[in-house]
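Troubleshooting: if your tokenizer reports a length mismatch, compare your output against this known-good record of 293 residues.
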Amino acid sequence: MDYILENDHLKVTVASFGAQLKSVIHKEDGTQHIWQADPSVWGSHAPILFPYTGRLKDGKMTVGDRVFENMKPHGFARNLEHTFVYQNKDTLVLQLTDSPETLAVWPWKFRLLSAFTIEGDVLHHTLTVENQDDEQIQFGIGFHPAFALPFDEDHSYQDYVLRFDKLESPLCLDTAPRGLISGKTYYLDRNILEIPIDDQLFANDSHCMTGLQSETLSLIEKDTGRGVICSIRNFPHCLIWSKPGQPRFVCIEPWMSLPSPEDGGYAWEEKPAAARLQPGESWSTTLSMAFVR
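Known-good structure output:
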């Protein structure tokens, strides 16, 4: 089911399947800012990454003497129906709770709340994890919104840049070739404010930037200043990604955790995590996206 939040600036659509942001239309000019999930290119809009980000080594994890295999990248929250909690004029809340399906692949009881709130031209997406188990849990979590390019027929992907608010030398954690942390690093560039969008930027997949000083990372149309400003200040890692070739979208992905290390084991407690919660505890993180004119 789709739910709509709307004010004088934005019309936002959220799908209950995956609690996924499906559409953000700016009313001033009718621009659709979210990638419309063409399955021939990439069939998602803005998946939630939970209870881990990226890949597990060999798609496998162990918890005590239990072995879990064929674990899909980015966890299961993006591929399940989330249920309605409440909606008012400005806010929509959906939830995912443990079920026989989730317990078969991740053996803890939990509640994941996904709250969407519009405030002027800003959309806030807050994820809250509650430990409903009788033992400690740890988890990873992240955001994966895909922003459509170009904004209109008068522009091409080359008319856009990714812009930091501070001078950066983006240090990236290498994940080639299997999507796992290799232990190597590289600089995407040095002493820059902007990353140009071109057909080579994602030739080798994503870039996992770490240790950024900027509070925001924005996708900006160079000649007009229109864009999407993502708040990344509270996230230790921020990825950028699109399919190789001429980008039809760009993902800005603030993550609180990382994929498994290439040289690591399978034990879940060794997986890079966002947080650990004792029974009854909860934890939240928010991605704020301003759709500016």
